Protein: FAD-binding domain-containing protein
Organism: Vitis rotundifolia
Amino acid sequence: MEKMVLEEEIVIVGAGIAGLATAVALKRVGIRALVLEKSDGLRVTGAFLNLFPNAWLALDALGVSHKLTPLYAVRKKAYVTNVATGAVQEVSLVGNNRCITVHRKALLESLAEELPSNSIRFSSKPIAIEAQGQEGPYTIRLEDGTVLIGCDGVHSFVARKLGLAVPVNSGLSSVLGLAVFPVGHGVRGDALQFVDVGIRAGILPLGDKEIYWFLTFNSTKETQNKYKKQVIENYTKDFPPTYAEAVRLCDLSTLTLAPLKLRLPWDLIFGNVSKGNMTVAGQVGCSALEDAVVLGRHIRKSFIDKGRLVPGAVAGAIEGYVKERRWRAAWLIAGGEGWLMKMFRDMIFYRFLLKRLIGVADYDCGKLPLLDDQNKTH
């Protein structure tokens, strides 16, 4: 295959939430980016996302929140049930804890619609950076002022080039599924969670006929390799009938049983998150939306009136983005799956820390300084 050398000013690797959101953020400040995606279309796996106020503020800045808010109801409460004791904890999801569950596909499509049709190249996997002699379809040549942004997840091609440590296994695995109830499920719109030692599960109603369900459990290679149905039946036999029915109505062939991997917090604090004009974004869940807005703000600062990136100033813009995001990303990882659960066990986590951790959603990533229409031609 003939090799193609990319000499774009902005190249984003990965058309997931982070990659598309970053491209939208740059477009809104007058900068056009090229997004490379190895899949042959949008990656819609992952089923659902719970979006808290921090995510909606980012979506407001990106100009896409209005597409999603009419489609989904705001949850008012969550109920966490201790399976062993039957004790139920009620958690308010109003105000700063507001939570809306959306289809991942709907979010991706809303972001993609904001971009020119030729700004995403599918079936495109970069194979080299600043290397001209290797076999393969894409070599990314970083000229002075060119920006390379890795938004390609925990197995990031760009992160490897930066020298970031390989993500580690959290010791947990997760299963996600969507159940469709032909005549309706009759479940209120509240989020329901069920916890036991080493297990967390839940159901999230969407409309009258759909329920998203999930299961997170302590895992080993042996449990990860078991057939999905066997794992689900083994871990959920003591759960309420509603959960069992949601699992039963789900097409098990569409499920993904996968180990949860993450970057260690100190890797983001002390590691090379950027190098010159190259950086990564979206390494921590839905904070990818925040990353996109913050990165767009900082790159905008390196722009001049003619609509071009200032040579030599791009690295400073990226450094500012990394400085603003590094500690928040590390904290979000430290407060996420596998860490506090291992330290304090499930019951203590949910009883004393759940509300405090939800509070990290009270975060505003800022606005994007929009350019005049005549400058939006880059």
In short: The CA atoms of residues 22 and 292 lie 4 Å apart. DSSP finds twelve helices and 18 strands in the chain. The chain has two domains: 4-72+102-167+263-375, 169-261.
